Structure to design on (113 residues):
């Protein structure tokens, strides 16, 4: 995702693990998705109400999330990013992202995304 301008979006960036529902009783509880290499750059969100929400899956975390030049305004200073079971890199992100994304773009693939 890149080059996006948002206004009055309640939650500007959200990754969710889903609704925890399954089509029938035969679902495979060990079949977990592999989410890796998500790139988000040049994003501006104005008049946002909630901080980003990034919820990976216990046992199958969302990995190598790359965020560059992301600006979210309108949030109360006390509002913090909500991250769980995610990891990645960030550079030029405001407000400061969660600890899990503070590796500051040191990955070579993130530098070019």
């Amino acid at each position: 995702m890149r080059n996006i301008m948002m206004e009055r979006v309640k939650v500007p960036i959200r990754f969710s693990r889903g609704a925890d529902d399954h089509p029938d009783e035969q679902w495979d509880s060990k079949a977990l998705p592999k989410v890796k290499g998500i790139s988000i750059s040049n994003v501006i969100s104005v008049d946002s109400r909630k901080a980003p929400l990034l919820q990976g899956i216990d046992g199958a975390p969302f990995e190598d999330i790359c965020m560059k030049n992301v600006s979210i305004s309108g949030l109360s200073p006390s509002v913090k990013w909500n991250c769980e079971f995610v990891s990645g890199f960030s550079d030029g992100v405001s407000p400061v992202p969660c600890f899990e994304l503070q590796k500051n773009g040191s990955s070579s693939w993130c530098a070019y995304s």
Summary: Residues 2-13+35-111 form one domain.
